[in-house]
Amino acid sequence: MNALEQMRVLQFGATRGRGGIPNAIRDLCRGLLAAGCDTRLVCNGGEVSDQIEAAGCKVYRLDWSRSLAGLGRTLPGAMRVLHAFKPHIVHTHGRVPSIVSLLAGRPADFYTMHSVGFSHEVGWFDRGWIRKFLLPTARNIIVLNAQATSWVAQHMRKPSERVHLIPNGVDTHHFRPPTPAERQAARNGFGLVDGDVAGFFVGRLHERKGADRMVELASALQQVGRDRARLNLVGEGPLLPPIQAEIGAQGLQDTIRVFGWSDPRVAYWAADLVLMPSRVEGFPLVAAEAMACACPVLMTRVGAFEMLIDEGVTGFSCPPDTKAFVEAASAALLNFEGLQCVRTAARRRSEAYDLRVQMGKTMRAYRSFLTGPHAPVFGGRVV
User: Tens digit of pLDDT per residue, the chain (383 long)?
Assistant: First the structure.
């Protein structure tokens, strides 16, 4: 790649469904386009892929699944894209895209590890020596927090210069504090009235995100008579049916309500506290987005919590077990004055993770790699 040539970047990851990883891919593609890169995406479709395409990114939708048959269906399409586009950088998100890229003849140059480690997600065969083979073979690994850096050093044996700590970025222009009128309209939209203290869970209703713990919190609040606390779940996912059933079985309808997906910014504007009872996290975009809206956050001490939370100053944290979360959330929802005190500091902290900061670090990592001794060879030449 010469100095005058436009950098060609191929992103490869799952965008079907909603949640942190599809949104992170979307924001990265938008940022790369704004930086002047010829940016394209190989994905598996969904609403987020439409948003990426609307931003001006060429999108290739392939139908893959976490199975050997799915890999076979995806491989020919990926090979065609790589041959036609000849990217300078291939950047994957997830083990399936990394494996497909390798089998298509172009190992990924960068792989973003969106969590701390790997679960058994590719299939029943993802065990033992096969599991080791399925670890992403990217030349460089991007991690979102220090814990993941340690995991990569232990399990993937990557040299430190090939591991890059680049947290996800948040658009702090879009996610901003509301005006009084905007906040009132947002609260009205969720049926909140004066005197209600509103705790919000925003995200995928999944065990890893701890969405089930919100029901236990609602039960605890009801038992102690904290009847002005209102819990709101904004999202969808596999835990939706059991959560709804448990709410009905325990008669918690006045304390906790479940909404489908909606604009997360409106939820942050309506909230007095965003609750993140996660069991596993990388860099939690929900927390950064909420803080950018000057909304206090309580999160469990997993993933990158320490990068965002100075206890009682920029937000709140608690141990990752259910009992500790319920106790901490109950206390925080009672301390309305304490919640107000962290709003300004939360906004300031989020600005350190602005999307432009992420893009600057990402572009420096790309350029350093392309000018270094391990620049990729594609089609018989260094690209």
Answer: 655 579 999 999 999 877 788 999 999 999 999 999 999 999 999 999 999 999 999 999 998 766 667 777 889 999 999 999 999 999 999 888 888 898 898 999 999 988 765 554 545 445 554 445 555 678 999 999 888 888 888 777 788 889 999 999 999 999 999 999 999 999 999 999 999 999 999 999 999 999 999 999 999 999 876 778 999 999 999 999 999 999 999 999 999 999 988 999 999 999 999 999 999 888 889 999 999 999 999 999 998 889 999 999 999 999 999 999 999 999 999 888 889 999 999 999 999 999 999 999 999 999 999 998 767 665 433 34
Confidence (pTM):
0.85
Please report the domains of the chain, with CATH numbers, ordered by start residue. 8-169+355-382 (3.40.50.2000), 180-351 (3.40.50.2000)
> Could you give the residue ranges of the DSSP H alpha helices within the chain?
20-34, 47-54, 68-85, 95-103, 128-134, 146-155, 180-189, 213-223, 240-250, 264-270, 285-292, 305-308, 322-334, 336-341, 343-351, 355-370
Contacts of residue 59, Cβ cutoff 8 Å, sequence gap at least 6 = 40, 41, 43, 49, 52, 53
